Amino acid sequence: MQDHIENILIIRRGAIGDIIFTLPAYYMLRTNFPNSKISFLVKDIYSPILKGFPGLDEILLVNNKILSSKNILNIGKMSIDLFHTMRNNNYQLVVDFAGHGEQAFFLWVSGIKHRWGLIKARKPIRQWFYTNSTIRETDVHVIDQHLNLLKQGGLTPSPVKNHYVIPQDSLDKAKGLFKNWGLSHQKPTIFIQPFTGDGISGKIWPLERYLNLAEYWQKQGVQILFGGGPSERQKLTEVAERFPVAAGQADFITSVGLTTLSSIVIGGDTGLLHAALAAGKRTVMVVGPTNYQLIGPYRKPEWAVRPQSGTSIETISVEQMITATQKALNEKF
User: Going from the N-terminus, what domains does the chain have, and what CATH number goes with each?
Assistant: First the structure.
């Protein structure tokens, strides 16, 4: 790209895993434009995740409550305010990793010269609003599709960097919780994330089986720690009677910190596992209908445990997971 780019905007409003998947692209932009200001547009409920993006200059927030309210007047006012903010910030390049139709039009109207977008399906009108666009593929990991969009725009490829950085205060909090639960750094520890953030039942391996898996490994002398969001604390009441549970005690980034203190991380297709992998941890991902090639463990498709027949996640047995976990404990990442 020959133009002088001073201000860059990345757009990915949510959710957690989707934001984590933009991390290598963020590093590639930073490498190609080391002196440029890079901002990120995201829903306010997901903004804390961006603390793990080192050197990010500014975060633009979309109010999730207003967006979800479907109140046309409030949404309109928020959109107008955002439009003026974008115009005032004078972005020369925007990279839209969602490629929604209304968003594409909004960016075109804003007058940003270089508008790049990843689009889920071929839509000629939507593509016209972007100056550089690619159509989402089903057999290429989302991270690589992000990088391909940047390469197609003329950026110089660089070694892929997928490194989520945990702020020291969050890591210190994680270490404090680890100590309070009586967990030892000298013993192997399994971190289990039993629920997916979007609550899609077809993506969730039964909690009872996670418990069976935990009990098996506890008998082998392995420490067990369960994760989860604040709203999932009640679902884990029975689990909390037998194992430490981070749900309700650790925010997202502190939870990522807890995964780095653990030996391996087990769970479904959820943002925490993608963040844990980016933070350098070995993961075991249980997937059912999820396309593991598209959103599985990046560059580690063999870490995805899939049904031996069909797509139902419930056909994955505890024995199958024990075997996968043993392999993970024996491997170094």
Answer: 7-152 (3.40.50.2000), 168-330 (3.40.50.2000)
